[in-house]
Every structure is written in structure tokens, then in C-alpha cells.
Design brief:
By secondary structure, the chain is mostly beta strands. The protein folds into two domains: 69 residues, SH3 type barrels, CATH 2.30.30.30; 32 residues, no CATH class. It is built from no helices and ten strands. A six-stranded antiparallel β-sheet has the order 6-3-2-1-7-8, with no helix packed on it. The radius of gyration is 17 Å and the shape is elongated.
């Protein structure tokens, strides 16, 4: 089964969304989504799941050494935060112009970046 055969379902979060971590070592932390990896169902979140990488000296990094950076987190451990700062589930509704928009299930407000 090749990559083209994988099921790519619609995800509840997008790059730039504010999210709350609901499980794992970083539970309770909030951060902005930097990148979404749809094929792995994972997302990289600013300031969450920091790992240490030992790097050799190279052209970009003359010194080498230990670099701390964010690693991807499973999206099932993330919840989108609406404008009021509440963690919420996401629904979709048609707006006045007939465009499908993401809506907070808690407050009913439209979620945009």
C-alpha cells in the first residue's frame, strides 16, 4: 500500500492554531501549531515536547553540540483553544457567504487564526 492509498481524513487543527496539550508529559501547556504532519497524525507545537539532539559540526552549525527543539505530538493529545481561551472541540458550519468555517462547539464562535 503506497502513500497515495492512505486515508487522509480532515483534521481538527491547522498550522497557526493555539492548542492545549491534554495528555502526556507536557499536559496543560498551550502553544501554537508550527507544522502538521497529516500522514503521521502528528503536529509540532511551539514549546511542547522539547527533545535534545546531539549534532556534529557542519557548515550551518560550526560548533555542533546539543540542540533543543520541538518534536511532533500525536494530534489526539491536542485540543484547539478558541478566542476566549477555552479548550474546545471543532465543528463545521456554513457561514452567510456559503463557505464552510470551523466553529467552537463550546461557545459557537468561528475559529480563525
Amino acid at each position: 500500500m503506497g502513500n497515495s492509498m492512505k486515508n487522509k481524513a480532515k483534521l481538527h487543527l491547522k498550522k497557526g492554531d493555539m492548542v492545549l496539550v491534554i495528555a502526556g508529559d507536557d499536559k496543560g501547556k498551550k502553544g501554537r501549531v508550527i507544522e502538521v504532519h497529516r500522514e503521521d497524525n502528528r503536529a509540532t507545537v511551539e514549546g511542547v515536547n522539547i527533545v535534545s539532539r546531539h549534532t556534529k559540526p557542519n557548515a550551518q552549525n560550526q560548533q555542533g553540540g546539543i540542540i533543543k527543539k520541538e518534536a511532533p505530538v500525536n494530534i489526539s493529545n491536542l485540543k484547539v483553544v478558541d478566542g476566549a481561551g477555552n479548550a474546545t472541540r471543532i465543528g463545521r458550519k456554513l457561514n452567510e457567504k456559503g463557505k464552510l468555517v470551523r466553529v467552537s462547539k463550546k461557545s459557537g464562535e468561528i475559529i480563525d487564526k
